[in-house]
Amino acid sequence: xxxxxxxxxxxxxxxxxxxxxxxxxxxxxxxxxxxxxxxxxxxxxxxxxxxxxxxxxxxxxxxxxxxxxxxxxxxxxxxxxxxxxxxxxxxxxxxxxxxxxxxxxxxxxxxxxxxxxxxxxxxxxxxxxxxxxxxxxxxxxxxxxxxxxxxxxxxxxxxxxxxxxxxxxxxxxxxxxxxxxxxxxxxxxxxxxxxxxxxxxxxxxxxxxxxxxxxxxxxxxxxxxxxxxxxxxxxxxxxxxxxxxxxxxxxxxxxxxxxxxxxxxxxxxxxxxxx
Length: 275
Ligand SMILES: [Zn+2]
Ligand SMILES: [Zn+2]
Hints:
The chain is α/β, with parallel strands linked by helices. The protein has a single domain (2-272), classed as Ribonuclease Z/Hydroxyacylglutathione hydrolase-like (Metallo-beta-lactamase, Chain A). The chain is built from 7 helices and 14 strands. The strands form 2 sheets. Strands 6-5-4-3-2-1-14 form a 7-stranded mixed beta sheet. Helix 5 (187-192) links the parallel strand 10 and strand 11 (198-202). Helix 3 (68-77) crosses helix 4 and helix 6 runs parallel beside helix 7. The longest helix has 11 residues, at 221-231. One zinc ion binds at residues 10-11, 61, 63-64, 182, 240. Residues 30-240 form the Metallo-beta-lactamase domain.
C-alpha cells in the first residue's frame, strides 16, 4: 500500500496544511480515506476519487471528520462521479448519529447514509482493555478485525475525551501501517503497532509544552518515540502537530527514544508501506 498525506495539521487546519486526512491506496485497487478533517476533501479531489473512497475514522473531533458531510454530497449528487456502489464507513459507535446530525437539514433530524454507505463500528464486545502484543494469537481476538476488500483493519481503544481508536491497516502480504489517531499514552499503542512497517503517530506536544499538558489527551514526541521503540516498528512518522506547536522539539523527543528512521509528516508526502 501507499499513503498520501492530504493534511496532517493537529487540532485544526493550518494556512498551508489541512487537518488530519490520509489516503491509502491498497494493492487490491481500493482507496481508503483515514480521517477527514477540514480541507481534506479539496485535496482528495486532486489526489483521489471522492466518488469511490471508503472512509474510516479514528474519532469524531472536528479536525478528524468535519469534511465528511460534504463527501456525502459528492457521493450522492455529483453529476458524473457520484458513488456507483455502496462503500464502507467504519468509525466509533456514535458515528452514524453524530455525522448523521451534521449532515441533516435540521438539528432534530439524522441523515441516513445507508443509500451510499455500509456504516460499521470499531466497538466490539471482545475489544479488551489489556494490551497484548499484536501477533497471530491476538489478531482478530484481542483486536477485532474488519475487512474492506482484501485489507484487514484492527482497532484498539485510544485514551482521548471522546470514543477514539488506534487503527492497524494490514495487507494480505503482511505490510502494515498503524495510526495512533489522537491518544494519550497507553500500552495499546505499542501493542497494536508490534512489528508494523510504519507507525503514523501523533505528537501534539514538543519540548516547549513539557510539564503543563492536560491529561488523557495527547502524546509528546518522547512518548511517540517510546511507543515506536517498544513496538519495534520499521519507521516512525510524527503527525498532528498544531499550527502553534513545536515540530522540531517533537522530532528531537522521538529520536531520544527511537533510533530507527523518523520524520515529520507533511502535506503531499507519499509513504510506501512494505515492499
Ligand atoms: Zn485531533
Ligand atoms: Zn481529538
